[in-house]
């Protein structure tokens, strides 16, 4: 893979000085159009051998283009904030929105490669990272991102020469540390691991581009020209998403589904409710104050039919928690900023730190519920959402998050009763709108979407809890009880 | 994932008998149209719990449809033939061509799941299998296949009941073996591993469909209807491939590439050639008769410019080998049968058994060379070919194949000299055509394609050997020597 980057590529000074002004102008033009269209983001990854000019290239791109629409991220050691979230969180928060360019100096490749080179991880762990990276980049390209992955390469001799040259010059001596020489000893291993990783992640949609790093003018002009070409190509020929040949999801032919099977007549007396409420709220409070909880976090997701009682149930939980460590995220239509990002971005941003609780009032499941039923997004988008959601939840659980997902089910009749009640009671009237009545007409479509959702995302690591919510007392206690059980189980596991 | 398949779905006899005739007719219609269009193959995977009706469903589909256009494959223990090839070979050879339906009873999922359940493999090995499966299925859908993955599920109680029922009836008693009861003990583990695997392989393009297996009528009608819907949908709305937003591959800005760097003046005297030819042919002969060679196989790939001397070099190799164990595969335009399959199919079919040698005179690299340059396929197809090729070669090498890839390079001037020589010598005239002259005009495009090919597919496990072939003697000896070295190195590694 590195043959072409060990040939001693060079560009002479005259050519460089002749080409650069034209290139800069064209890049600025393209960047302007990119920002105007605001239809796709450009994600540039900079990786490779130390001393191959990675940093200089980042600075140069910044200097050549309009810095207002470009953002460089130096991804060094993760911060405390970052360490308490899944490893990909820091990259999600740094993704450029549509119309902008994000440069990642050090990326999702850095740690997997480095840990393997230093012997801190096994080859099977590298495989898992590669798998996760491929899923992540597929999601990005499915979401229209333009990804450019540059790998700056130096042969072993060239790297040695480069480090020595830097060391000799008093002005650059500080840039060469003992660590650099330590790393140099690992050159062969680094090359082997990188080659393997590049090979396994060079896909049709996001191929690696290997650039020889020795000559400043060659590497700068190469990166600049490829970047220009790539952006221009996308601006002039917008990507066209596939219309995939998927098998349509269908309702069970006997019309029997998980919702039908619920025993909706389950009830709790007021008296029993009040006793149990106190009991489980107390328990939940103790559990979240347990030292064991500091190493984990809790995410509770609430989905349900309109008027199923999500709000009331959530209030019974928050009443048991320390408000400083608990956040409620109501999910409504995405903001402008959120619309400029991949679908899952607006949920990643709300992942709690360790020891914290986040409650989602509606969630990422909107894509496979309302967006599917109302046809807000095409079938291929909500079909791929199931696996994107499973990937997301797997990363949460890997990071010691207790993830509890509730579907609050009420019957058609009970919903009607509640709608009417809301209309007749003054302080509840704001809770019922035309839209609620419209949604109600699509009851069957919603039920279908709920069952598909449960089938495809109720997994061993993040099961759905279906809550029979015709009786609010019963529902609230079932929810509190489930939360306590799930936290206890996680604590036992360790 | 299995919630909906534990509800006790049932279809009564009347409904069934009323629906089946209509369904069969519609299926036959769809099947007929599928065969007429011959635009995509249908691949049906049947997996799941023992006793959940997998076999019956396969038989039923066969009975309902036209058996001439449907082929069922029972994938049990691999044969000797199959064990000597990479694990995926047996599935490649059984893929249905466009216009046909292939049913896999037991599939690429069976062994990875079973080995994990029985503790014969580690969870990291399962991850690797899952990764490979996802790449394979992505390739299939990229190649327009319609994939339907059915998972037949039974709850633990239902499976027990089912096995007991079968045992009680003298007519079906033979179907329940001790192994079945042994397997039943592993139900929980099987469920866990399956759920994990299904979750990780349920993609937007090829989602799993879980079917409750208890009721014969329910499961049969469900599978039949989904199959019908899926085929109809594809017939009526052909899949539209994505026009992906890839960064265009570009020539190095200083025009320097791996081919330029070759020292094309290297020569060998006739006398030295004859001595070395004898020496290395003898060595190669001994190596391929070594007992160590029986556990491996050799694949040599020859690519090169027109008139670069591939044929002559190949003859010098075969002269050293036992003709019974050596095959030469000349790759020209694909046959009709090959065109009805994914691109890589026609190379998979020629993978040698252990102890054998296969020489490809041109190869799978045609896609990124002639097909790219002559625009026989769209950019997205040859762009994804690089990673499909790397996947393929990785599987060969994993299976102890020594894979040696030669690019025979001659200069523009030398080609002209040879072309002219060919035209003037009677018995060589057939070797030169109009097309050769036309190709020659695209010399630069081909050189570009060759360099990209080397950059993207010369890997640590399957490197390219560039052969300076202006002097035929030099070229032939370099080739023989390289073959010997690579076999020796593989033997040392064991």
Element layout with pairings:
Two copies of one chain form a homodimer.
Chain A: H1 13-37, E1 42-48, H2 54-64, E2 70-74, H3 80-83, H4 89-94, E3 101-105, H5 110-117, H6 123-142, E4 146-153, H7 156-168, H8 178-185, H9 187-201, E5 208-212, H10 216-236, H11 270-289, E6 297-304, H12 310-318, E7 326-330, H13 336-339, H14 345-348, E8 357-361, H15 370-373, H16 379-398, E9 401-409, H17 412-424, H18 434-441, H19 443-457, E10 464-468, H20 472-493
Parallel strand pairs in A: 1-3, 1-4, 2-3, 4-5, 6-8, 6-9, 7-8, 9-10
Helix pairs in contact in A: 1-10, 5-9, 11-20, 12-20
What does this protein look like?
The structure is a homodimer of 494-residue chains. Chain A has 494 residues and is of the alpha/beta class. Chain A has two domains: 3-236, 3-Layer(aba) Sandwich (Rossmann fold), CATH 3.40.50.300; 270-493, Rossmann fold, CATH 3.40.50. Chain A contains 20 helices and ten strands. Chain A has helices at residues 13-37, 54-64, 80-83, 89-94, 110-117, 123-142, 156-168, 178-185, 187-201, 216-236, 270-289, 310-318, 336-339, 345-348, 370-373, 379-398, 412-424, 434-441, 443-457, 472-493, and strands at residues 42-48, 70-74, 101-105, 146-153, 208-212, 297-304, 326-330, 357-361, 401-409, 464-468. Chain A has a five-stranded parallel sheet, with helices on both faces. A five-stranded parallel sheet of chain A has the order 7-8-6-9-10, with helices on both faces. In chain A, helix 5 (110-117) packs across helix 9. The longest helix of chain A is centred in the N-terminal third of the chain and has 25 residues, at 13-37. Chain A is elongated, with a radius of gyration of 27 Å. The two termini of chain A are 44 Å apart. The relative contact order of chain A is 0.12. The mean pLDDT of chain A is 90. Chains A and B meet through helix 6, strand 4, helix 9, helix 10 and helix 16 of A and helix 6, strand 4, helix 9, helix 10 and helix 16 of B.
């Amino acid at each position: 893979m590195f043959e072409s980057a060990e040939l001693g590529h060079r560009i002479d000074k005259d050519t460089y000085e002749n080409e650069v002004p034209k290139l800069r102008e064209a890049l600025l033009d393209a960047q302007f159009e990119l920002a105007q269209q605001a239809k796709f983001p450009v994600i540039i990854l900079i990786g490779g051998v130390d001393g191959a000019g990675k940093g200089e290239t980042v600075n140069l791109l910044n200097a050549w283009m309009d810095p207002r629409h470009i953002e460089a991220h130096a991804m060094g050691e993760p911060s405390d904030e970052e360490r308490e979230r899944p490893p990909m969180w820091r990259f999600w928060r740094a993704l450029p929105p549509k119309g902008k360019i994000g440069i990642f100096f050090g990326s999702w490749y850095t740690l997997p490669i480095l840990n393997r080179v230093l012997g801190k991880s096994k080859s099977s762990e590298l495989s898992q990272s590669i798998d996760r990276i491929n899923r992540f980049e597929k999601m990005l390209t499915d979401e229209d991102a333009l990804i450019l992955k540059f790998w700056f390469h130096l042969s072993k001799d060239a790297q040695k020469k480069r480090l020595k040259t830097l060391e000799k010059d008093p002005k650059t001596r500080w840039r060469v540390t003992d660590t650099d020489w330590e790393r140099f000893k690992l050159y062969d291993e680094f090359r082997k691991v990188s080659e393997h990783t590049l090979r396994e992640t060079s896909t049709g949609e996001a191929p690696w581009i290997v650039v020889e790093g020795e000559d400043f003018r060659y590497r700068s002009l190469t990166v600049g020209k490829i970047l220009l070409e790539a952006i221009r190509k996308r601006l002039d020929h917008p990507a066209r998403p596939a219309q995939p040949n998927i098998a349509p999801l269908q309702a069970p032919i006997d019309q029997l589904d998980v919702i039908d099977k619920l025993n909706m007549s389950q009830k709790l007396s007021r008296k029993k409710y009040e006793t149990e409420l106190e009991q489980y709220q107390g328990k939940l409070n103790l559990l979240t104050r347990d030292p064991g909880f500091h190493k984990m976090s809790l995410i509770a997701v609430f989905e349900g039919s309109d008027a199923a009682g999500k709000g009331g149930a959530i209030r019974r939980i928050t009443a048991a928690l320390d408000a400083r460590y608990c956040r409620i995220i109501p999910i409504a239509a995405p903001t402008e900023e959120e619309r400029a990002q991949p679908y899952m971005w607006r949920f990643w941003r709300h992942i709690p730190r360790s020891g914290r609780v986040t409650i989602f009032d509606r969630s990422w499941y909107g894509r496979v519920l309302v967006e599917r039923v109302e046809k807000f997004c095409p079938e291929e988008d909500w079909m791929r959402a199931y696996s994107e959601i499973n990937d997301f939840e797997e990363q949460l659980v890997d990071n010691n998050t207790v993830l509890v997902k509730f579907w609050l089910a009420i019957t058609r009749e009970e919903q009607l009763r509640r709608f009417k009640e809301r209309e007749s009671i003054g302080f509840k009237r704001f809770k019922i709108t035309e839209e609620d009545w419209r949604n109600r007409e699509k009851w069957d479509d919603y039920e279908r979407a709920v069952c598909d959702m449960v089938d495809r995302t109720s997994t061993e690591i993040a099961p759905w809890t279906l809550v029979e919510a015709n009786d609010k007392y019963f529902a609230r206690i079932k929810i509190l009880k489930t939360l306590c059980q799930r936290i206890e189980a996680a604590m036992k596991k360790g």
